[in-house]
What does this fold into?
Amino acid sequence: QPVLTQPPSSSASPGESARLTCTLPSDIDVHYSNIYWYQQKPGSPPRYLLYYFSDSEKGLGSGVPSRFSGSKDDSANTGILLISGLQSEDEAEYYCMIWPSNGSGVFGGGTKLTVL
Amino acid sequence: QLQLQESGPGLVKPSETLSLTCTVSGGSINNNNHYWGWIRQPPGKGLQWIGNIGYTGKTYYNPSLKSRVSMSVDTSKKKFSLRLSSVTATDTAVYFCARLRWYVSAADAFDVWGQGTMVTVS
It folds into this structure.
């Protein structure tokens, strides 16, 4: 199974932006991958946030505010979750996910986001 | 509004088989636009995808668990199930069931999740 690398932790202040990364292994090209992002708060199941393939092919989950968005850095083979206008309620664990082969999926290790 | 609810024993002995069921309510289990998945989370750790099943019974399993996993679906009861054999302490986790969007014959997002059920192997 491929490994998606996420920094264990990140922090930012309310009102600022947070940029969370998800690096794919070298044998999977982020340019051709849908990147899915989930948010999980303690004691709750994950919540689907969004997916990102390109600026013309992306989607937000139901009820997810537009402060959440996705992007990619092809040069770093990385998917990015950007959260603008951080709020205290955004403090959570964030997981990326891909489907490297049809029907077989893998999650990243998660990033704990602290809103200072 | 679609809801999912996991059920099953909270304690399983080592070497035995873990069996869980997910009941779907508020929506249909029979459609080509969705699969049904299992994901687990060991205490204090991250998420691990276990596998997916369609209403026809077609399955996809995590290669690392494939030799021990089986899934089934009962469309008449709107339930799907997970069986994991030969369990050890490392299988201790919260097990989630979820609805998987299936878009253009490919897996998409887990858009609806159950609350999860803790299973301890001891």
